[in-house]
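About this split. The held-out portion is used to measure sequence recovery: a designer receives only the C-alpha coordinates and must propose an amino acid at every position. Recovery is the fraction of positions where the proposal matches the reference. Here is one held-out target exactly as it appears in the evaluation file.
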Protein backbone atom coordinates (compact mmCIF):
# COMPACT_ATOMS: atom_id res chain seq x y z
CA UNK A 1 0.00 0.00 0.00
CA UNK A 2 2.69 2.47 1.04
CA UNK A 3 4.73 1.73 -2.09
CA UNK A 4 1.77 2.26 -4.43
CA UNK A 5 0.87 5.52 -2.65
CA UNK A 6 4.43 6.71 -3.10
CA UNK A 7 4.33 5.70 -6.74
CA UNK A 8 1.07 7.63 -7.25
CA UNK A 9 2.55 10.73 -5.71
CA UNK A 10 5.70 10.28 -7.72
CA UNK A 11 7.68 11.10 -4.58
CA UNK A 12 6.44 14.66 -5.06
CA UNK A 13 5.56 16.62 -1.93
CA UNK A 14 3.72 19.30 -3.91
CA UNK A 15 1.36 16.63 -5.22
CA UNK A 16 0.73 15.46 -1.66
CA UNK A 17 -0.15 19.02 -0.61
CA UNK A 18 -2.63 19.31 -3.50
CA UNK A 19 -4.12 15.90 -2.62
CA UNK A 20 -4.60 16.90 1.02
CA UNK A 21 -6.08 20.28 -0.01
CA UNK A 22 -8.54 18.54 -2.35
CA UNK A 23 -9.53 16.09 0.37
CA UNK A 24 -10.10 18.94 2.84
CA UNK A 25 -12.24 20.92 0.38
CA UNK A 26 -14.31 17.83 -0.45
CA UNK A 27 -14.71 17.05 3.27
CA UNK A 28 -15.89 20.64 3.83
CA UNK A 29 -18.43 20.36 0.99
CA UNK A 30 -19.78 17.07 2.29
CA UNK A 31 -19.90 18.41 5.86
CA UNK A 32 -22.15 21.22 4.60
CA UNK A 33 -24.49 18.61 3.11
CA UNK A 34 -25.04 17.07 6.53
CA UNK A 35 -26.33 20.35 7.98
CA UNK A 36 -30.11 20.54 8.25
CA UNK A 37 -32.05 22.50 5.68
CA UNK A 38 -33.05 25.13 8.26
CA UNK A 39 -29.48 25.64 9.48
CA UNK A 40 -28.18 25.81 5.91
CA UNK A 41 -30.79 28.47 5.09
CA UNK A 42 -29.72 30.48 8.17
CA UNK A 43 -26.05 30.33 7.10
CA UNK A 44 -26.92 31.44 3.57
CA UNK A 45 -29.11 34.27 4.85
CA UNK A 46 -26.36 35.51 7.19
CA UNK A 47 -23.70 35.37 4.45
CA UNK A 48 -25.97 37.08 1.93
CA UNK A 49 -26.91 39.87 4.34
CA UNK A 50 -23.52 40.49 5.96
CA UNK A 51 -20.97 39.68 3.25
CA UNK A 52 -22.25 39.25 -0.29
CA UNK A 53 -24.87 41.98 -0.59
CA UNK A 54 -22.71 44.70 1.03
CA UNK A 55 -20.02 43.97 -1.58
CA UNK A 56 -22.53 43.77 -4.44
CA UNK A 57 -24.16 47.01 -3.25
CA UNK A 58 -20.98 48.81 -4.38
CA UNK A 59 -21.98 47.84 -7.93
CA UNK A 60 -25.69 48.52 -7.44
CA UNK A 61 -26.56 44.81 -7.20
CA UNK A 62 -28.00 42.41 -4.65
CA UNK A 63 -28.94 38.72 -4.52
CA UNK A 64 -31.35 36.50 -2.62
CA UNK A 65 -30.29 33.67 -0.29
CA UNK A 66 -31.17 31.04 -2.89
CA UNK A 67 -28.72 32.57 -5.37
CA UNK A 68 -26.04 32.64 -2.66
CA UNK A 69 -26.39 28.88 -2.23
CA UNK A 70 -26.00 28.31 -5.97
CA UNK A 71 -22.96 30.62 -6.11
CA UNK A 72 -21.48 28.68 -3.18
CA UNK A 73 -22.00 25.39 -5.05
CA UNK A 74 -20.24 26.74 -8.14
CA UNK A 75 -17.39 28.29 -6.15
CA UNK A 76 -16.74 25.24 -3.96
CA UNK A 77 -16.70 22.95 -6.95
CA UNK A 78 -14.49 25.29 -8.97
CA UNK A 79 -11.90 24.89 -6.20
CA UNK A 80 -12.36 21.11 -6.43
CA UNK A 81 -11.94 21.28 -10.21
CA UNK A 82 -8.80 23.40 -9.87
CA UNK A 83 -7.20 20.92 -7.48
CA UNK A 84 -8.37 17.75 -9.25
CA UNK A 85 -7.06 19.10 -12.57
CA UNK A 86 -3.55 19.34 -11.13
CA UNK A 87 -3.80 15.86 -9.62
CA UNK A 88 -4.95 14.36 -12.93
CA UNK A 89 -2.31 16.15 -14.99
CA UNK A 90 -4.86 18.39 -16.70
CA UNK A 91 -6.82 15.60 -18.36
CA UNK A 92 -10.35 17.00 -18.77
CA UNK A 93 -12.28 13.71 -18.88
CA UNK A 94 -10.67 12.46 -15.67
CA UNK A 95 -11.25 15.79 -13.97
CA UNK A 96 -14.92 16.00 -14.98
CA UNK A 97 -15.52 12.37 -14.00
CA UNK A 98 -13.95 12.92 -10.56
CA UNK A 99 -15.92 16.14 -10.12
CA UNK A 100 -19.16 14.45 -11.16
CA UNK A 101 -18.49 11.68 -8.64
CA UNK A 102 -17.96 14.21 -5.84
CA UNK A 103 -21.13 16.11 -6.87
CA UNK A 104 -23.27 12.96 -7.01
CA UNK A 105 -22.02 11.84 -3.61
CA UNK A 106 -22.73 15.33 -2.27
CA UNK A 107 -26.33 15.17 -3.44
CA UNK A 108 -26.64 11.56 -2.21
CA UNK A 109 -25.62 12.67 1.29
CA UNK A 110 -28.51 15.15 1.17
CA UNK A 111 -30.97 12.28 0.65
CA UNK A 112 -30.06 10.95 4.09
CA UNK A 113 -30.30 14.36 5.75
CA UNK A 114 -33.72 15.01 4.18
CA UNK A 115 -32.50 18.13 2.37
CA UNK A 116 -33.70 17.09 -1.03
CA UNK A 117 -31.03 16.39 -3.63
CA UNK A 118 -31.18 18.39 -6.83
CA UNK A 119 -30.14 17.48 -10.37
CA UNK A 120 -29.78 21.23 -10.99
CA UNK A 121 -27.17 21.38 -8.22
CA UNK A 122 -25.20 18.55 -9.85
CA UNK A 123 -25.11 20.57 -13.10
CA UNK A 124 -24.04 23.70 -11.21
CA UNK A 125 -21.36 21.66 -9.44
CA UNK A 126 -20.13 20.22 -12.73
CA UNK A 127 -20.00 23.70 -14.28
CA UNK A 128 -17.91 24.79 -11.29
CA UNK A 129 -15.56 21.84 -11.79
CA UNK A 130 -15.20 22.74 -15.49
CA UNK A 131 -14.43 26.36 -14.61
CA UNK A 132 -11.88 25.28 -12.00
CA UNK A 133 -10.29 22.90 -14.51
CA UNK A 134 -10.04 25.67 -17.10
CA UNK A 135 -8.46 28.11 -14.64
CA UNK A 136 -6.00 25.44 -13.45
CA UNK A 137 -5.09 24.53 -17.02
CA UNK A 138 -4.50 28.19 -17.94
CA UNK A 139 -2.31 28.69 -14.86
CA UNK A 140 -0.40 25.51 -15.78
CA UNK A 141 0.18 26.79 -19.34
CA UNK A 142 1.30 30.19 -18.07
CA UNK A 143 3.76 28.68 -15.57
CA UNK A 144 5.11 26.28 -18.20
CA UNK A 145 5.64 29.17 -20.61
CA UNK A 146 7.45 31.17 -17.94
CA UNK A 147 9.72 28.18 -17.13
CA UNK A 148 10.58 27.72 -20.81
CA UNK A 149 11.45 31.41 -21.22
CA UNK A 150 13.65 31.25 -18.14
CA UNK A 151 15.39 28.13 -19.46
CA UNK A 152 15.98 29.81 -22.85
CA UNK A 153 17.45 32.87 -21.16
CA UNK A 154 19.69 30.69 -19.03
CA UNK A 155 20.85 28.74 -22.09
CA UNK A 156 21.53 31.98 -23.97
CA UNK A 157 23.55 33.30 -21.04
CA UNK A 158 25.67 30.16 -20.88
CA UNK A 159 26.31 30.33 -24.65
CA UNK A 160 27.52 33.92 -24.29
CA UNK A 161 29.90 32.99 -21.50
CA UNK A 162 27.81 34.56 -18.80
CA UNK A 163 27.24 37.78 -20.70
CA UNK A 164 23.63 38.67 -21.35
CA UNK A 165 24.51 40.36 -24.63
CA UNK A 166 23.26 43.78 -23.53
CA UNK A 167 25.38 46.88 -23.96
CA UNK A 168 25.91 48.77 -20.73
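Reference sequence for scoring:
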Amino acid sequence: MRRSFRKYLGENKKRLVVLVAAALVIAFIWSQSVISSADSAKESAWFTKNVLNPVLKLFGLSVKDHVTRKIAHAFEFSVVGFLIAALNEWKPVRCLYAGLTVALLDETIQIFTKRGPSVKDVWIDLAGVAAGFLISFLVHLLLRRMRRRKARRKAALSENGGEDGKDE
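Annotator remark: The CA atoms of residues 6 and 124 lie 34 Å apart.
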